[in-house]
Design brief:
The chain is mainly beta. The protein folds into two domains: about 70 residues, Nucleic acid-binding proteins (OB fold (Dihydrolipoamide Acetyltransferase, E2P)), CATH 2.40.50.140; about 80 residues, no CATH class. The protein has one helix and twelve strands. Strands 1, 2, 3, 4, 5, 6, 7, 8, 9, 10, 11 and 12 form a twelve-stranded mixed sheet that branches. The longest helix is centred in the N-terminal third of the chain and has 23 residues. It is elongated. The termini are far apart. Keywords: Signal. This is DUF5666 domain-containing protein. It comes from Tardiphaga alba.
């Protein structure tokens, strides 16, 4: 039996396909969030003028209710089983991760962006936000096993690995010379960026992540 497709059905299918392609193209053209690392050069009201670590200038407009979080030094001994941490890591040949940096989340931030994903600090680096399941002394540092909802990773931490933690901050700490990292800044049509959160290194610290 030959099936006859009506003209209206063909038109409907074509309209749906065209709409799908339009949505896909629009999604592809939307600017992707960016991570901005650098030094504040000046503050103009709600706009931070930042000298990016990778070169160039960035103008970042803060939202009216911007959250400022301080980043301060911590130690490997501060990491305990059960802590929620972020591990900036590099893959090793044996399948483990070598920590480039670790940040300890306060309890109020537990569960934030849980999981493991590519990170832009170095080529092939990753960011894993997870709970410390086990901490074992090693010959040249320590080994952490961290678990998240979709898996786990074994992480080698050297004595020289930077360890930091998050503390409450305020806008007065956003001043020239301060080192910041802004995660997921949205690019505006004029080339500037927008954010609702700024992480700032305290006491001259450069955020290592």
């Amino acid at each position: 039996m030959v099936q006859v497709i009506s003209t209206s059905a063909r038109l409907l299918a074509g309209t749906v396909l065209a709409a799908s392609l339009t949505i896909s193209a629009a999604s592809a053209q939307q600017p992707q969030p960016s991570n901005i690392r650098g030094s504040i050069e000046s503050v103009d009201g709600a706009v931070l003028n930042i000298k990016a670590r990778n070169g160039g200038e960035r103008k970042v407009r803060m939202s009216d209710n911007v959250t400022v979080t301080g980043i301060t030094k911590a130690a490997l001994s501060d990491i305990k089983s059960g802590d929620y941490v972020g591990v900036t890591g590099m893959p090793q040949a044996d399948g483990t991760q070598k920590a480039i940096a670790i940040h300890i989340f306060p309890e109020s931030m537990r569960g934030l962006a849980e999981g493991s994903r590519p990170w832009d600090l170095k080529p092939n680096s990753s960011m894993t936000n997870a709970t410390v399941d086990q901490k074992v002394e090693a010959k040249d540092g320590q080994t952490l096993t961290v678990k998240y909802k979709d898996g786990e990773k074994k992480v080698t931490v050297e004595p020289s690995t930077p360890i930091v933690t998050f503390v409450p901050g305020n806008k007065s700490e956003l001043k020239p010379g301060a080192q910041v990292i802004i995660i997921g800044a949205k690019k505006a049509a004029d080339g500037s960026f927008e954010t609702a959160r700024v992480n700032v290194g305290l006491d001259g610290l450069t955020p290592p992540m």
